[in-house]
Amino acid sequence: MPEPLPAAKPALRRLAERLTPAARAGDYAQAVMDLGATLCLPRRPRCLLCPWESVCAARAGGDPESYPARTPKGAKPQRHGVAFWAVRRDGAVLLRRRPPRGLLGGMMEVPSTEWRSAPWSLAEARRSAPVPARWRALDGYVRHGFTHFDLELRVLVGTAAEGDGLWWPVDRLGEQALPSLMKKVVRHALAKA
C-alpha cells in the first residue's frame, strides 16, 4: 500500500525531479498532467493505454486504483444555528443581507443566528429573533455541509407586523439570489409551516 497523501508529497517531488528532463521541462510537465487527466484516473485507470505501464509501480503492485492513497478525513465539526421564518399578514417573508465579511458574506438570507458549536435552546433563540413574534419551532432541521464544518439549522416560524430587512412575497422568492443553504431553509419552512 502506498504512503498516503499529503505525507507522500516530498518523496513524489524527489521522484518527479529525477524524471523531469532539463530540456522542455514545461512540455514534459504538461504531458504528465495530460496522462493523469486522461489515463491515470483514480477510479478505473486505463493502464493498458499508458506508455508507462511497464515501469509503473501502481500497476506492478496489482492495485492501481489504490493510488494516490489518501489519509482518511477526520470528522467535520458540527455547528448549530436558528433561522427565523417571519411572515407578515400579507404573506411576505422577511429577508436580510448577511454581513459583508465571512461565510456567505453579503448574500441575502432568511434571518438567522450566529452558527456555533452548541445547539441553541428555544428560549435563547427567541431572544435572538430579528423581530417580535410568537415563535414556534418547526419539526426537523435543515442540514448543510460546508468545506470545513457541517451546519444544522432549526427553523422557527412566526407572524410579524414589521421589522428591519426586506419583506418579500413568497411566490417571488425565486427572484432573490439566495444561497443554497437558504433555499433549503425556504423549502423546509414552506413544507412544515
Describe the structure.
A hairpin with a 4-residue loop joins strand 5 and strand 6 (150-159). The protein is built from five helices and seven strands; from the N terminus they run αααβββαββββα. It has two domains: 9-66, Orthogonal Bundle (Endonuclease Iii, domain 2), CATH 1.10.1670.10; 78-192, Alpha-Beta Complex (Nucleoside Triphosphate Pyrophosphohydrolase), CATH 3.90.79.10. The chain has helices at residues 9-19, 25-38, 57-60, 122-127, 180-192; strands at 78-87, 92-97, 108-109, 136-137, 142-145, 150-159, 166-169.
Give short descriptive properties of this protein:
elongated, 7 strands, 193 residues, alpha+beta, Nucleoside Triphosphate Pyrophosphohydrolase, three-stranded antiparallel beta sheet
Topology:
Blueprint: H1 9-19, H2 25-38, H3 57-60, E1 78-87, E2 92-97, E3 108-109, H4 122-127, E4 136-137, E5 142-145, E6 150-159, E7 166-169, H5 180-192
Parallel strand pairs: 1-6
Antiparallel strand pairs: 2-3, 2-7, 4-6, 5-6
Q: Would you state the CATH class of the largest domain?
A: Alpha Beta
What spatial form do the alpha-carbon principal axes imply?
elongated
CATH topology of the largest domain: Nucleoside Triphosphate Pyrophosphohydrolase
Radius of gyration: 26 Å
Strand fraction: 15-25%
The end-to-end distance, rounded to whole angstroms, is 53 Å
Percent range for helical residues? 10-25%
CATH H-level superfamily title of the largest domain:
Nucleoside Triphosphate Pyrophosphohydrolase
- N-to-C order of helices and strands: HHHEEEHEEEEH
Total count of domains: 2
